[in-house]
Structure formats: C-alpha cells, structure tokens
Design goal:
48% strand, 157 residues, mainly beta, four-stranded antiparallel beta sheet, five-stranded antiparallel beta sheet, globular
Length: 157
C-alpha cells in the first residue's frame, strides 16, 4: 500500500479594506476614501496601499484574491501585490516587482464579489531582501474594497 502525500495546508494573509491607506498626492478633489461598516469606499479617484508581512520566508504565494463590490459598469478596480527588493548600495529608485495582479470582473453586481489570480511572478517569499505591499487602484466611486487575501503554502496545488 502507498500513502498519498498530504496536501500543503493553506495560510491566508488577510488585509481588510479598512486597513488600507491613501498616500498623497491625493485625488484631484483631495478627498480621502471613507470606511463604511468596514468597507473602503472611494469618494473620488483613489490609490490605496497596505503592507504585507508574511509570517514565514521560503513559502510559495499561490493566489491573490480581491473581495469587493462593483456597482460601476465603466471602471475596473485593480489590486497588485508588489515586492520592493533591496541590496545595500543599490539604487533606491528601482521599480518594485509586480508579483500578482487581479482586476474586478465586468458587469454591475450589487453584492460581495471575489476575483482571484494564480498567475504569480516570483512566488517564493523572501523578506530577507525585500518588502511586500498591496496597491489597489480605484479609478472612481462605486468600486468598494472589502479586502485582499493572499494564499501561501509550502507548495501550491
């Protein structure tokens, strides 16, 4: 008899929309997004950020999921997981690496929705020489963010 290897258990880094912050320069109106009952709601064009601190180095990022409400038929909300690498003596202005990108789905649905990507660039977590963060671009109102979840495991399914 042979035994199958156990499935690598998932760990989820869960970033609430209420924890995202806007960095200035802010939108044209200068209005900040609101938090309404735990949901980040833009009052104008907004780009918001949240730091990601993975609990263990060396694991694999398997998927990134955006949980949202989209009641805007013309615009798309985009969440990107980014890694800003560093080496002492290197150029601080080097661009971060886009690890994953997920977009809100088409259509207007006035309920909670999820969009997930498993297309991951550089999936092995390395916080020894880099920092991770999520950037969410909300080009207008009526695109509300509940949060972002990042599934990481020893190996991806």
């Amino acid at each position: 008899a042979f035994a199958m290897a156990p499935q690598a258990s998932a760990e989820i880094v869960s970033l609430s929309g209420a924890g995202f912050i806007q960095q200035c320069p802010c939108s044209l109106s200068g209005q900040q997004p609101d938090i309404v009952k735990g949901v980040l709601t833009p009052t104008d064009q907004s780009t918001v950020f949240a730091a990601v601190d993975f609990p263990v180095n060396g694991r694999k990022i398997c998927s990134v999921t955006m949980v949202y409400q989209d009641i805007n038929g013309n615009d798309t909300m985009t969440a990107r997981l980014l890694r800003k690498s560093f080496a002492v003596g290197s150029n601080v202005a080097n661009n971060p690496t886009v690890v994953a990108t997920v977009n809100s789905d088409a259509g207007v649905v006035n309920t909670v929705r999820k969009a997930t990507t498993t297309a991951i660039t550089g999936p092995t977590i390395n916080e020894v020489s880099g920092f991770y963060y999520v950037e969410v671009a909300m080009p207008t109102v009526n695109l509300n963010l509940l949060g972002v979840q990042i599934d990481h495991r020893l190996t991806c399914p």
